[in-house]
Amino acid sequence: MISKSIEKALNEQIAKEAYASFYYLSMASWCDNNRLPGGAKFFYMQSDEELAHMKKLFVYINETGGHAITPAIPQPPNGYKSIEEILGLTLNHEIEVTKSINSLVDMCLKEKDYSTFNFLQWYVAEQHEEEHLFQSIIDKVKLLGGDAKNLFWIDKELGSMTARG
Ligand code: FEO
Predict the structure, then answer these.
(1) Rounded to whole angstroms, how far apart are CA atoms 19 and 13?
(2) Most buried by CB count within 10 Å: which residue of 33, 70, 89, 149?
(3) Which residue has a Cα nearest atom 1 of ligand 1?
(4) Taking 50 as the threshold, does the pLDDT of residue 165 lie above it?
(5) Ligand 1 mean position, distance from CA 75 (Å)
């Protein structure tokens, strides 16, 4: 069984994962509208992944005596300047999500909720993967330089990325 405070915090995390899914969906749409099919494919995939992160929390909360709540999702931005800007925003966003997961882990330790602590280890590992992924893409873009000629290769690279589960 989870405590009311952990249930509330996990429900707040549900809202954050849902927002991340919408945020990446808006980036996919921007890429589609700016003739970047590789970027669009990549961000549609990221959006699906965030939805899966959200659903995992739903199942866990309901399995442990809590009630998972479908969140209200604020509208993310829809206009971006460039793919470089988008990649910077995604990294910053993932860093914020990592902080949120870490404070959930802290809370579980304080409450001695080892089941939720254990459940959250998947998210700890996932955040490490995502921060690393976005940082490595940004590094590659910096290496290539962001001019129009290289945009083709950046887009191709994004389109070649596959889901990590
Ligand atoms: Fe579910 Fe990208 O954090």
Answers:
(1) 10
(2) 89
(3) 50
(4) no
(5) 17
Residue 15, amino acid = A
Instruction: For residue 146, name the pLDDT band (cuts at 50, 70, 90).
Output: low
The DSSP letter of residue 62 is H
The pLDDT of residue 78: 94
What CA–CA distances, in Å, run from 75 to 20, 21, 51, 59, 72? 11, 11, 16, 25, 10
- Nearest-atom index, ligand 1, CA of 101: 3
Domains and CATH numbers, the chain: 4-160 (1.20.1260.10)
Report the alpha-carbon distance of residue 147 to residue 50 in Å, rounded.
30
- Report the predicted TM-score, pTM, of the whole model to 2 decimal places: 0.94
50 C-alpha to ligand 1 centroid (Å): 5
